[in-house]
Amino acid sequence: MNDDSKTLKKLDTLIRHTRQNTLMTERLLAHQVFQSLPDDKTVTFPHRGETIRFHVPDGWLDAVQRIIMLNRTFYEAALLERVRERVSPGTTFVDAGANIGNHTVYFLKLCRAAHVHAFEPMPHMQAILQRNADLNGTDRVTVHPFGLGATASTADVEIFNPANLGSTTLRASLNAGTDGAIPIRPLDAFDLQDVGFIKIDVEGMQDAVLSGARDTIARCKPDLVIEAFQRGDEREKTEAVLADMGYRVDEIIGHNIWAVPA
């Protein structure tokens, strides 16, 4: 091994150790802040003149809840601000992969949504999502306890990381009657009217969600924001699905495609 290779190896080791130490420090801080929260584990903060409340029962560990708890702001705040700038008040939103309701609450309070239909398949997150809807105006939020997909079916959990609950990944069940299977429904089955905006964050299942929402999208022509990573051909495949549906990519925001009718 030459000197340059040895130096690069040392730098790589240093970077990995620094990242580990930073994460440990952040988690220690998060645990201390979490312990100082009231018994209901709710944080309250102002945002653009609104009072925002979030129940964060896993704030010491889960990435999204930790960001909200430590920073007293929304997760993916820059993306959400772009939504506020572009989407008119009074719009009906669909939040596919709603997790604990970070985006749902923003759509409700800051985008002045007429209604938010929040879809979350995991029971633990469903309960937190409903609690956060209750804390921030539940009369304009409907929590749907389903994952969205191409057809009515079931799925099982393939990847689960308690330190990042939003990264939970599902796979189609081999046996629809499997105990604990997660119910999957196409968005078209809900016959939603006047949908103006759909956000999809479903850990690689976005093409199936789009397939099951074709009628709704064709009828309502909403703006779409879809998480689609540039890993392999994931983003290219999603863009091809969108083109087939008569949509074009209008903007790329981080890992998200903003698509509009062509």
From TrEMBL:
Q: What name is this protein filed under? A: FkbM family methyltransferase
Q: What is the lineage of its organism?
A: Bacteria, Pseudomonadati, Pseudomonadota, Alphaproteobacteria, Rhodobacterales
Where in the numbering of this chain does the Methyltransferase FkbM domain appear? 95-249
List the keywords (alphabetical).
Answer: Methyltransferase, Transferase
Keyword Ubl conjugation listed: no
Which InterPro entries has this protein been placed in?
FkbM_mtfrase, SAM-dependent_MTase, SAM-dependent_MTases_sf
Q: Name one GO biological process term.
A: methylation
The source organism is: Gymnodinialimonas phycosphaerae
Q: Name one GO molecular function term.
A: methyltransferase activity
Q: Which Gene3D superfamilies match?
A: Vaccinia Virus protein VP39
